Each structure stands twice: as structure tokens, then as C-alpha cells.
Amino acid sequence: xxxIKPAILLxxxxxxxxxxxYPAVVTGLAHAVFPNQxxxxxxxxxxxxxxxxxxxxxxxxxxxYFWPRPSSTTDFAYNPLASGGSNAGPTNPxxxxxxxxxxxxxxxxxxxxxxxxxxxxxSASGLDPHISPEAASLQVPRVAMARGVSEAVVRxxxxxxxxxxxxxxxxxxxxxxxxLNLELDKLPK
Length: 189
Description:
This protein is mainly α. It is 45% helix and 7% strand.
């Protein structure tokens, strides 16, 4: 009996500290130090409407937009609640059919030559909002033709929205497609 009272008291104390005080302090610090990230890194369009998060891919399929890396999430594409890879190996027949169908979409849109893997294979999370500048460059002719603008204008937007390596040495240069596609929407029609 002597052990029950201190155990219950410790349960209450640690519940208050770990379940209330600590999360409140961390959330408060996050909002003070990183306000945009703490709120979900949302990106707004030219009218101020939130269009999506810079951290989660968005489903673009119209020819006048750059197409993202495929999503492997269930229920719907880029579902953050179902983040995770498909776990399908490179010899899985369903996986090979899905990749072949994605390759066909790009070939039908006029892309020739080798395709970067990120255009036909999902990332490990299935939510990646970025593609390489090379993958974006392959889509420039289709986007320019669909929008009725020169390829040079579209290439300038790709260059403008290309993010450098994180801290100058981590990862590779990348293009956030939501940012790029919102820039495309600012072009005169």
C-alpha cells in the first residue's frame, strides 16, 4: 500500500509535466522561433488564399502545370495521414505496371530520352514536394506550349524557384512544384 500513493502521485506529476507543460513550452517556442514552419509552411497564391504546404506534394495533372513526383499514399494522392512507401520491390509486377504507365504518360506528352527516376517512382514518404531541376527541365516544352508562352520564360521560372542545397552542402538542388506552379499562374494570360 505504501508504494501505491507515491506511484499515483508520480503519475499525476509526470502527466502534467510531460502531457501539458512540456508540449505547451515546445509549441510556444516553435511558434516564436519558426512561426511559418510551426503553422505548416503553407503557401498562398497571389490572392492570399492558402494553396498547400511547401512540405507536402500536391496533385497536378493538367498539361499547363509541372507534374510532381508520384505519390504512393492510399485513399488519395499526397495523403499526409497515409505517408509511407508502397514497399513494392523492383520485380513486383504491379509496381512495374505502374512505372510503365507513368513512363507512357510522359512519352505521350512529348518527353523523349531518359526520364529521371523521380518522375516515375514515388519517394519513401509518398509526399515529396520536390523534383530535380533536370526533371523540371524535361517538362518545360509541354508547359510552355500549354500556356502559350516561350520556353525561355518557363525556364526562367524554373531557375528562379530552384532551391540550392540545404546549408550549401546537404542534398541536391531541387524545385518545389507548388511554388513553381503558383509562379506560373502569375504569368499574364
